[in-house]
Amino acid sequence: MDRDLLRQCLTHHGESLFNTLQCEQTENPDFQAVASDLAKATYERRGAGEGCSLVEQFIARKADILFCPTWRTAVPREDELEDEEATEPYAIMPPAELFMGVPFEERRAMLYRDLERGDAVVGRINNVREYGFFLTLLCAAGGLRRDIEDLELSALCHIKEIPSTGSHDNPLSYYQIGDLIRGGVKDLDRYQEKITVSLLPASLCPRFAHIKLGVVAREELPKHYSRGLRVANDARETYERILRGCHGYHNPSVVEYLLGRAGVSDHRPPSLMRGLQSKHFHEEDFATVIRKKQSASWALKCVRSGVDHFKHGRHVEAMNEYNKALEIDTNNVEALVARGALYANKGGMMKAISDFELGLETCPDHRNAKKYLCQTLVERGKQLQGQEKFVTAEGLYRRALSLDDSYPEAQAALRRITDTIQKSIRLREEATAKEETEKAKSGKTSAQKLRKILKDEKRMKKKRKRSSSSSSSSSSSSSSSERPYLSPTSTTSSRRRSKKRRRKRGDSERGSPRHRRRSSKDDGSGRRKRSEEEEEEEEYPAPPNTSASFLGSGFLGSGAGRGEGGEEEEEEEEEEEVVVDDRRISQLYSLSAASEDEGSEPRGGDGKGRRGRSFSSHAKGGRRRRRSRRGSSSESSAAREQGKARRRSGEGRRRSRGRSSEEGRGRSREEGRSSEEGRGRSSEEGRGRSREEGRSSEEGRGRSREEGRRKSRGRSSEEGRSRGRSSEEGRRRSSEEGRRRSRGRSSEEGRSREDGRRRSTDEGRRRRKASTSSLESQRSRKSAVAAERPPACRRSSSGSLGQPAPPLAAPPPVPPRRTSLDGGRSQSRPGRGAELKGGEGPRAPPPSTSTSSSNGQGGVARPPQPAGGGAGKKGLPANLMDIFNKIAKFEKEKGAGPRK
Amino acid sequence: MEDPSSRTAHDGPPGQVARGGSESGGPAAHGGPPGQAARGGSHSGGPAAHGGPPVQAARGGSDSETDVTREIKTHFRVCRFIMESGVKLGMRSVPVATACELYHRFFECVSLRVYEPYLVAMSCVYLAGKVEEQHLRTRDILNVSHRYFHSGSAPLECDREFWELRDSVVQCELLILRQLDFHVSFRHPHKYLLHYLTSVKALVNRHAWTRTPVAETAWALLRDCYHGVMCIHHAPQHIAIATLYLALNSYGVEMPVGEREWWQVLCEDVTKEVINAVISDLLLLYDMEAKCV
Asked: Are A694 and A700 in contact (CB under 8 A)?
């Protein structure tokens, strides 16, 4: 208890209060502590005696509240705002003693008691001497609001306290008798009753720093003084009348303003009622807290029903429920996580990530949010990796690891990506080195080159077979594992994939566990798949630049699988192994391809062989791309068919591509087109282009077409055996374009269209790079592998073709791979064989690409595809085309690499 | 009640209100018994009385005096409910005062037996929020009230009952408006008190003033006085002066004395008797608290 306050009170009320206090506060240890002190003094009642017994009793009963140190919560806002005078947020009243008729002597004593150094006063100069001037004080201007005009107060302002104006004049010359001066109280002698004022700002109390000192006009005098004058001049003026006449009194928020000024809290309002003490209010009873809780529970209800919808495959309804939940409770973690999961399932990785991040923001320890975010980040990282955005992908992996440093997928993915980055760098260097050597050896005829390419192709095939056989086991396992993953993660392609999966598996994909089962079934069901996968692996060997992308795509695939089935770690591991194999292969291929490209022109036979390899790689790339595109659905099947009979398959592929495009995914169509183009049919290309153009509202497509035309021209020239440089140039352009395009989504498509095989390869690369959806990238890898693989795979693919690529979200991974593989195969392999021829044919047209495009528009690109498939010769040209493309790519890469 | 022809008569609104009371008021009337009993008011029959007008009528008939005190106690409890809800809803003092005054004015002309007081109180809070431009959501009011009657309970579900509760509050708001003839805006002592405080503060040594929690005490007294019908029976200036007087008196703050007392200056028509009357009313409320809670 505040002893001084209590003493002051007792002094006022007298002994009786003390007695009552002792009765009422007997159980209050605080009072007992001070009681002995207080008892020493004797109290005489000073206040009015009547009616005090009740008040005394009240004081005594509430003494523990009234005199509790914590009761004095108010922190009066002492600073007078600068604009208070001008805006008058409350009624500024004249001093009350003006109305009270307080005797002169008492007022004078009160003034000397209460005036303090630092206050501001206003006075009129009544005398000017050489040492200063004297003021008769008129009113207080800050710190104290009293009526002092009639108190005959005199104050001295010494010359030292007058700021000099800079000139050497006597500062006093500026002041005359009768001037109104505002000054700060510098010193106060309460006994001698002497006041000294200063015009230096430093004399003022800091909170009055805004007050200007010096001469003031009459209008500048404070409001309480001017209003006081009115009272003095008009006896009828009363406090209340003035109050009501004041602007500030009618301020709607005057209560809040004055409460704040007095420092009383209106949110934890004081009360002398026992039951209203703030200690009785619990935080959880407050409206905001209840509302929060309630919103959370309401939102949770929505989330539950949303999850129910989701479980039954009603994704739209689920999304609606989630959104409703988030409307009710903006940052509901459960809703965010659930929606994020839905986004992730639908392929909206970025949306999913932002949802998870938001959820983690509000609830940093949410398990599922963390887990899902990790998975989605890895997934997204794989996608980016597929688009060759390695640095970003790496960042995502690191972020995932920062969330969960023991997350194996992220660790593996990070390891892989660092490896790939290093490898790609190495490959680039090697490629440049080869280029240089090639340049040194320039001179072989194009025919020689062709031969070499063909030889290389054969070699490559053998190698592939070996590699496929060796890697088949791992690949199969990986593929099986990947498939389930893919299905869940699939973004756009997921539907197609899912369709395929459904057809194949016959299961609907809902949960990751199911995927696992399916995947196991798949494994059991088909060696085809395995073989395809193996093929894919073979295909992996991509051009140096692309290799990384392939790897990335593979990673993506695996990542997607993880994301989807996050639970299946084993599968992931398998995938990783596969990926590793792929990498090796790809490296080999890329190396070979690079060498081929480089050597193709200069070296005759070698160059051919290399070309063949490169073709294959390109083709692979193309396949991959195609696969990825097709990946969604029918394309994959078509690719398989192509694998059976390359020419046939090529047709099938085209068909499949056409189908896929029909199915509706622009990408798939584009891929299909690109593959078709790769086969070499200009008309097809043209069609594809036209389609692409039509579709491509996407800028990239238009570009791609143009590029494709250029490329095609380049190809044609190359076919003429001048493939070497011109084709290379064209390839370079195309590849460059493709890269650009790849950066944009459309760019991928465009690339594919550009040059059939080259394009396809380029596109494949681009696609790989650009491939937005990890699934696609995965598929593309797989498809590429499949393409590399022998006809058997194609057969399988054809089988898949036979199985219409259901647009639905069949477990994308496997089928897509197959399809993509097929597509890649069809493109690349056929290209090698008939495709090359075909491709050349088409390419030849490309020079007239503009016309071809028109043709393409006129005729459906797909029909041409079958024709291309039919022509085995075409396949050869296609291969040539591929080779060219590859060469071009290599060249580009080389060119780009060194430049880079 | 006063206007039988209008909807406010016993037929329409009462029925509605009764319905509302049984549902939302569930808390008050039905749920009330448990919740209220927990609050220790069962012996006074406060909540039970509201819930069961017939019973009360029978009792009231037998003893008119106890009936009056019982009603006062009920009003005290309901006002306590308003104030607690006000704090939990983050209402400022003026809207709370308006809510209380709405409540008191409503039951000034209407029998406690006809309308469920807690439902009326909830509607008063809602209406006061509108009148004083501090809009409150019915959902918050319902939540806080529900938790008041069932302390520790889970928040309401978003179901039919919730919407019926909400409807009953809104309906009752209309009833209040009609009953008060749409005179729902009041002059409160708060503005006066704060201006008086600044004037009185200037009369006192600033250090003595900061040492003495007069502003808090006066503000607390002013808020507390809304537990009763003082706000209707006394002029706002008088209430403001009385609370300030009591606060100054409680701390023994010496005021300069001239030809007129400070309170005479602040308000022309205030007299010592008026001040004493207000103070005694106020002090009665503090005694009431011990009896009611």
From this structure: no
Q: How many CB atoms lie within 10 A of CB B204?
A: 19
CB contact under 8 A, B219 and A259: yes
- The per-residue b/e assignment along A217-231, b for 16 or more CB within 10 angstroms, e otherwise, is eeeebbbbbebbbeb
The pTM (predicted TM-score) of the whole model is: 0.58
Q: Beta strand pairing status for A194-198 and A154-158? A: parallel
Residues on chain A touching B205 (C-beta within 8 angstroms) = 113-114
Tell me the three state secondary structure of residue A92. Answer: coil
Q: Cβ of B253 and A240 within 8 Å?
A: no
Partners of A835 in the β-ladder: A875
Burial classification of residue B63, based on how many CB atoms lie within 10 Å of its CB (0-12 exposed, 13-18 middle, 19 or more buried): exposed
Most confident listed range (A43-47, A473-477, A692-696): A43-47
**pLDDT at residue A458 tops 50:** yes
Half-sphere exposure of B16 (CA within 13 A, CB side): 19
| Token pair listed for A9 | 């009170």
Complete DSSP assignment for A263-309: T--SSS---SSGGG-GGG--GGGSHHHHHHHHHHHHHHHHHHHHHHH
Q: What is the pLDDT of residue A881?
A: 66
User: Confidence band (pLDDT; 50, 70, 90) for B94?
Assistant: very high
The answer for residues whose C-beta is within 8 angstroms of residue A680's C-beta and 6 or more apart is A756, A757, A831, A835, A836, A837, A838, A839, A840, A841, A842, A843, A868, A874, A877, A878, A880, A881
The pair phi, psi for residue A140, each rounded to 5°, is: -90, 140
Cβ–Cβ contacts within 10 Å for residue A326, how many?
20
Interface list for A 49-78 with B (CB within 8 A): 51, 54-55, 57-59, 61-62, 66, 71-74, 76
Q: Which ranges of A490-543 does DSSP label H, i.e. alpha helix?
A: 493-505, 512-525, 527-539
Residue A697 contacts by C-beta under 8 Å, 6 or more apart in sequence?
none
Q: What are A855's two structure tokens?
A: 């043709």
A528 and A570 Cβ atoms separated by less than 8 Å: no
pLDDT of res. A733: 52
Q: Which of A290, A158, A559 is nearest to B88 (CA)?
A: A290
Interface test with A, best of B219, B221, B257, B271 (most A CBs within 10 A): B219
- Cβ–Cβ below 8 Å for A255 and B92: yes
Nearest to B203 among A51, A97, A240 (CB): A97
Mean pLDDT of A229-247: 86
Burial class (CB in 10 A: 0-12, 13-18, 19+), B105: buried
The verdict on a CB contact (< 8 Å) between A301 and B158 is yes
Q: At A120, which helix (H) or strand (E)?
A: strand A120-129
Per-residue pLDDT tens digits for A696-723: 444 444 444 444 455 444 444 444 444 4
Residue A768 near residue A624, CB atoms below 8 Å: yes
- CA B190 to chain A, closest CA, distance in angstroms equals 7
Q: What confidence score (pLDDT) does residue B63 get? A: 57
Please answer yes or no on whether B256 and A271 come within 8 Å at the CB atom. no
Dihedral over alpha carbons A754, A756, A758, A760 (to 10 degrees): 90
- Helical segments of A526-631, H only: 527-539, 544-565, 569-600, 605-631
Q: Which of A7, A24, A68, A266 to mutate to test the interface with B (most CBs of B within 10 A)?
A: A266
For B278, residues 6+ apart whose C-beta sits below 8 A from its C-beta are B225, B230, B234, B238, B239, B242, B243
d(CA A377, CA A349): 8
Residue A184: strand pairing partners: A120, A198
Cβ neighbours of residue B44 closer than 8 Å, sequence gap 6 or more: B70, B73, B74, B77, B291, B292
- Cβ contact, residue pair B283, A99, below 8 Å: no
d(CA A813, CA A485): 7
